[in-house]
Amino acid sequence: MALDDFVESEVGIAVAATALLVSPEVRTVVRRGLVYGLAAVLKASDSVATAARGVAGDVQQRVAAGGPAAEESRAEGETVRKRGKTT
């Protein structure tokens, strides 16, 4: 076997798979990485959901208070009503 045989990607994958199956330390590290990765994904999705709820709440309050969003909604409604009368 030449040195080039050890550098090929297939050999590297086989060595990594063997180390994963045989070594308890490697399995522990991989398992810990998966757990931390999953925790990060859950935390990020929770943050996105919280931000979306906050934005939805702000829009709802502005519409209820008659803010810019309510004015746009009213203007669109009047346009629709005007179109309905002219046709």
Key terms for this structure?
mainly alpha, 87 residues, single chain
Write the layout of secondary structure elements.
Elements: H1 3-7, H2 9-22, H3 24-65, H4 68-86
Written account of the structure:
This protein is mostly helical and 87 residues long. It has one domain. The chain is elongated and about 85 Å long. It starts with a helix and ends with a helix.
- Identify the quaternary structure here: single chain
Content of β-strand: under 5%
Number of helices: 4
Order of helices and strands: HHHH
Compute the separation of the termini in Å.
86 Å
Sum up the overall morphology in one term.
elongated
Indicate the percent of residues in helices.
over 70%
Q: Which structural class should the secondary elements be placed in?
A: mainly alpha
Beta strand count: 0
Tell me about the largest β-sheet: none
Task: Count structural domains.
Answer: 1
State mean pLDDT (0 to 100 scale): 80
The Rg value, from CA coordinates, equals 29 Å
Low-confidence stretches: none
